Q: What sequence folds into this?
């Protein structure tokens, strides 16, 4: 990976040769994310933090999940039998999908402690991972990439539907607020996106305690209703779910699309695993979140058995009149937290995509000096804001938006299940006789939810699918375009070994100072070096070829960051390795070189970068419209100088025209 677009992504580190690590450690051992049991004193703060970040999405589902089951697009009559059937589906969905599938299986497929579909994809296709090649490998890559693209749609829809559903509680208090629901929701969302540049470090400290209050309140509301009608607890028997489908047939299957809303935050558990670890997330789930959710859902069911007319918004009807406004305020705060988690998740996914070579360079701002995961991407933030405002104005209610909500997440969950199966078989060595039945059970549930949501395509489900298709096309085009550009550049390149041998005993004239030539392929002569020799006919006294690679792991230990190799003619080759959750930095690389006794004075060092002007052609490769799209993306990508944090007054760019 380098300033050269063809190499901005994963690549093989330079061959060992005479390379020596800058530090004594040269091992590439996998990192155990959580070695050994952790004491409760350490787990408790992490679990509290997980409540504020990981569980915001799934924790606010009670606002709209049962409401949509009984009064949504495919709502069913709230008869006692139907209420018990839906509650049984809710109970077993939370147990099987979240407790068993994600916490029991999927979250064990961590990539050195990091989770999420792109981390899983990197684990599947990692060198030596056994993912194979050809058509099979392409299918896996396509699935993972499309799943990541769908999460962008979730990042747009979640803030809109969550905040709208909370503010709509004002309409339950009094119809006078109904005309103001939309403006209030928009103001809250605008404020949320405008404060992103300030970072989430300070506000994050209150997220956990606030979510403790939220889960405690919804649990109490549920207990109060359960005390009035405890018979609803019989819904834990799976026979009620079975009889619900037998009794309602196709209509009952369609209700699954609304039942799925209770598990929509499942993917967030996996994606945010790297922030807290598996054990704190599990402790928070079984210690507070799951009991609170079940108590509230069963409490809503008890209320529906007592008064079916409240099906239009059973959550807010659980509260006594005096508590309604405080509950709306608390629900709004909880939905803002849920929205923040999705926004931060989109930032994280985008940075991973950039580092893995699926997205052009964008500006990444670190909002915390201590936590490298706290980042802000201005361009992505603006795009999300525009998308959220558009869907709020277009759909105008949370009920209409839930039709668009489930289909993206169900598809991503099914893809996660498939990729996790590949990891279990090919990296863990799980026998087929064990892995296949587990895959069939989980995939059957995922596909059932997907099928129930697919019928919503005409009523809003087209939105996340369209967004996913557009983003998938952009990412696939960028990846393929970089590959084609790399092939073009390699075809016109000269092996570095041949260039050095051509110098003979009398190399080019040496001039004072240091020159760093950035290159994506350490085995070939950088085009900027060739141009410099052709036009200036000199080499600097200290000439370095720098290759920055992105590994298929989240983090590379600092001790393994940089290797230095001595070449003929006094040249040196430096390879800097970064994980896909890290940001490459020239100042960081030079600092580690100085610590190893290889000094660089930045003010006397010139950085030579290659800059290619891309031209669309009729040559075989991509369709011309995709080539034009790639050229447009390249022109709008962030400059290598800014991305790698190179002092701009020390950069020399040497360009060339390249036909795709």
A:
């Amino acid at each position: 990976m380098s300033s050269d677009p063809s190499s901005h992504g994963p690549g093989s580190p330079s061959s060992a040769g005479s390379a020596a690590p800058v530090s004594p450690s040269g091992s590439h051992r996998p990192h155990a994310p959580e070695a050994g049991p952790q004491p409760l004193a350490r787990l408790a703060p992490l679990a509290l933090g997980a409540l504020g970040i990981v569980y915001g999405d799934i924790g606010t589902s009670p606002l709209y999940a049962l409401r949509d089951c009984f009064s949504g697009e495919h709502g069913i009559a709230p008869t006692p039998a139907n209420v018990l059937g839906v509650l049984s589906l809710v109970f077993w969905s939370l147990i099987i999908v979240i407790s068993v599938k994600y916490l029991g299986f999927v979250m064990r497929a961590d990539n050195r402690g990091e989770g999420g579909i792109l981390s899983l994809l990197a684990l599947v296709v990692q060198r030596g991972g056994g993912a194979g090649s050809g058509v099979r490998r392409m299918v896996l890559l396509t699935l993972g990439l499309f799943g990541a693209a769908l999460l962008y749609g979730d990042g747009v829809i979640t803030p809109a539907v969550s905040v709208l559903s909370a503010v709509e509680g004002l309409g339950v208090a009094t119809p006078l607020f109904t005309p103001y629901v939309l403006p209030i929701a928009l103001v809250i969302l605008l404020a949320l996106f405008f404060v992103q540049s300030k970072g989430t470090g300070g506000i994050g400290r209150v997220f956990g305690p606030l979510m403790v209050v939220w889960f405690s309140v919804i649990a109490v509301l549920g207990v109060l209703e359960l005390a009035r009608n405890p018979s609803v607890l019989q819904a834990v028997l799976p026979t009620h779910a079975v009889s619900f489908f037998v009794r309602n047939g196709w209509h009952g299957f369609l209700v699954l699309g609304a039942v799925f809303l209770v598990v929509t935050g499942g993917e967030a558990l996996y994606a945010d695993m790297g922030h807290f670890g598996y054990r704190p997330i599990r402790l928070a789930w079984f210690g507070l979140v799951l009991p609170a959710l079940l108590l509230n859902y069963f409490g809503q069911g008890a209320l529906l058995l007592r008064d079916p007319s409240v099906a239009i918004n059973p959550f807010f009807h659980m509260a006594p009149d005096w508590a309604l406004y405080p509950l709306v305020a608390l629900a709004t705060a909880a939905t803002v937290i849920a929205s923040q988690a999705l926004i931060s998740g989109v930032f994280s996914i985008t940075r991973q995509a950039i580092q893995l070579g699926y997205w052009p360079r964008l500006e990444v701002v670190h909002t915390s000096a201590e936590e490298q995961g706290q980042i802000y991407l201005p361009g992505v933030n603006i795009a999300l804001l525009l998308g959220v405002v558009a869907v709020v104005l277009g759909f105008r209610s949370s009920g209409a938006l839930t039709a668009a909500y489930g289909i993206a997440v169900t598809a991503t969950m099914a893809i996660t299940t498939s990729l996790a199966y590949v990891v279990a078989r090919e990296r863990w060595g799980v026998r087929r006789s064990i892995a296949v039945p587990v895959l069939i059970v989980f995939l059957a549930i995922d596909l059932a939810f997907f099928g129930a949501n697919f019928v919503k395509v005409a009523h809003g489900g087209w939105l996340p699918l369209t967004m996913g298709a557009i983003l998938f096309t952009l990412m696939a085009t960028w990846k393929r375009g970089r590959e084609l550009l790399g092939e073009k550049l390699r075809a016109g390149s000269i092996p570095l070994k041949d260039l050095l041998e051509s110098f003979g005993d009398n190399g080019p004239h040496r001039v004072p100072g240091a020159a760093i030539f950035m290159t994506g392929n350490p085995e070939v002569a950088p085009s900027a070096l060739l141009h410099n020799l052709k036009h200036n006919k000199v080499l600097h006294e200290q000439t370095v070829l720098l290759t920055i690679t992105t590994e298929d792991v989240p983090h590379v230990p600092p001790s393994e960051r940089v290797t230095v190799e001595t070449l003929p003619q006094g040249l040196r080759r430096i390879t800097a390795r970064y994980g896909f959750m890290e940001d490459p930095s020239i100042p960081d690389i030079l600092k580690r070189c100085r610590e190893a006794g290889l000094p660089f004075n930045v003010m006397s060092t010139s950085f030579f970068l290659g800059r290619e002007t891309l031209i669309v052609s009729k040559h075989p490769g991509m369709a011309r419209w995709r080539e034009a799209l790639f050229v447009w993306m390249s022109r709008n990508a962030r400059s290598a100088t800014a991305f790698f944090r190179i002092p701009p007054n020390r950069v020399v760019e040497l360009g060339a025209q390249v036909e795709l």
Remarks:
- The two ends are 20 Å apart (CA to CA).
- Residues 1-36, 127-132 have pLDDT under 50 and may be disordered.
- The chain has 24 helices and nine strands.
- The first strand starts at residue 20 and ends at 21.
